[in-house]
UniProtKB/TrEMBL annotation:
Organism: Carya illinoinensis (Pecan)
GO CC annotation: nucleus
GO molecular function list: DNA binding
Protein name: Uncharacterized protein
SMART domains: SANT (SM00717)
Stretches of the chain forming a coiled coil according to its record: none
Start and end residues of each HTH myb-type domain: 9-62, 63-117
UniProt keyword annotation of Repeat present: yes
Primary location group: nucleus
Pfam family, one: Myb_DNA-binding
Domain called Myb-like: residue spans: 9-62, 63-113
Subcellular locations according to the entry: Nucleus
Length: 372
DNA sequence: AACTTGCACAACCGCCATTCT
DNA sequence: AAGAATGGCGGTTGTGCAAGT
């Protein structure tokens, strides 16, 4: 037999909490604790609330030492870096910010921080893409490929690029520093320019795509590299990225978790030159991080969803498709951030005591690179 | 002054892993 | 061991307020 239902949903009050309800709940918990059973708690104290609602109210609002609003620049940096590294794992991020709740951080991210970062990116792109035919920044944001990617993966890539671009501000105005494009990408741009100023897409510059074995200079707007991802994790764990990560980070195991991954025979180096990866085989994961949600997304897109182009022009579509397929064939050189990671490598929902954010040097790169 | 729009935040919903009977 | 409750989490929605028209 199981247990009795947690609450009678028909007789449960919803909506904002009154000061009286808050006072009742707070007084009881401060005196008696939760008793290890949130479901039974509201009945004990005469509140017509669901136990889950009581728990949420306590954790997010009534609990002592909760801070609301007024996020500092340092907190902004921490949130950004952790979001880029681990995605929307708000409970983990919140654990690194004393007094902050996951709900608070989630709201702050969704309403302010994300806009702040992506807004800057949009503004910057206005300058960069003006010379290659994009009519306005909306063209850049409204790219027709993005629906094929998970929003989280795309968003994190965009933000990562934004951070990189802010670290190299002079690159914006110097087209010579822009990455060399794959020939098909160049072809695509030329085609777009010839087609009555059709929208130009983020990807054209987001993915410089070198041929295997060929060095290609990438001075700007490179996707997150193996090195940068390693740096992210090294900062977080104060260790080299390795199998130690799974024991030092203690990420929550879940079927819908997020984690960065790296794949590819050709990985960009710190200097921006692509070199073949030595083994060419054992590249499916780093630190137990599962491969390739993006790969799956791209495959899916190319195999099943090519009808999704917004362009009305057949030639235009074919050029785009050729380019995408070519990029896909060079996918081993891609490094991406996925939405899934190895659930076997994760063990709990807390960061260990060696943590993480206490490291003095941890965010200095980002702090030097940008002011949020 | 009235209405609309956008923003920030609180709360709810649904899913999943764990715990309990 | 099976099945149901519980706890926890992330995504989404609802609401109140402020700014803009």
């Amino acid at each position: 037999m199981g247990r009795a239902p947690c609450c009678d949903k028909a007789n449960v009050k919803k909506g904002p909490w009154s000061p009286e309800e808050d006072a009742t709940l707070k007084a009881y918990i401060e005196q008696n604790g939760t008793g290890g059973n949130w479901i039974a708690l509201p009945q004990k104290i005469g509140l017509k609330r669901c136990g889950k609602s009581c728990r949420l109210r306590w954790l997010n609002y009534l609990r002592p030492n909760i801070k609301h609003g007024g996020f500092s620049e340092e907190e902004d940096n921490i949130i950004c870096s952790l979001y880029i590294s681990i995605g929307s794992r708000w409970s983990i991020i919140a654990a690194q910010l004393p007094g902050r709740t996951d709900n608070d951080i989630k709201n702050y991210w969704n309403t302010r921080l994300k806009k702040k970062l992506l807004g800057r990116r949009k503004e910057s792109n206005m300058n960069r893409f003006a010379s290659i035919g994009a009519k306005d920044a909306n063209d850049l944001e409204d790219n027709s490929y993005s629906p094929a990617l998970s929003s989280s993966a795309l968003e994190r890539l965009q933000i990562h690029m934004q951070l990189q671009s802010l670290q190299k501000p002079l690159s914006y105005n110097n087209t010579a520093l822009w990455p060399k494009l794959h020939p098909l990408q160049e072809k695509m741009i030329q085609s777009l320019q010839s087609l009555n100023g059709s929208p130009t897409h983020l990807w054209q510059h987001a993915f410089p795509s070198p041929q295997p074995g060929q060095g290609q200079k990438v001075d700007f707007y490179e996707p997150p590299t193996a090195a940068t991802i390693q740096e992210d994790f090294a900062r977080i764990s104060n260790k080299r990225v390795s199998h130690e990560v799974e024991s030092s980070l203690h990420i929550v195991p879940s079927s819908h978790n997020s984690m960065a991954f790296v794949t590819g025979n050709n990985i960009p180096t710190d200097s921006g030159t692509f070199v073949p990866k030595a083994d060419g085989i054992e590249h499916e994961s780093i630190a137990g991080i599962e491969v390739s949600a993006f790969q799956a997304e791209l495959d899916d897109f190319l195999n099943n969803r090519t009808g999704g182009f917004v362009s009305q022009d057949q030639d235009h579509q074919m050029v785009e498709l050729d380019c995408l397929k070519e990029m896909n064939s060079s996918k081993d050189s891609m490094i991406w951030w996925s939405n899934d990671f190895d659930t076997n490598s994760a063990t709990s929902n807390s960061w260990d005591s060696t943590s993480v954010i206490q490291s003095e040097k941890m965010f200095q790169d980002y702090e030097l690179g940008y002011n949020l």
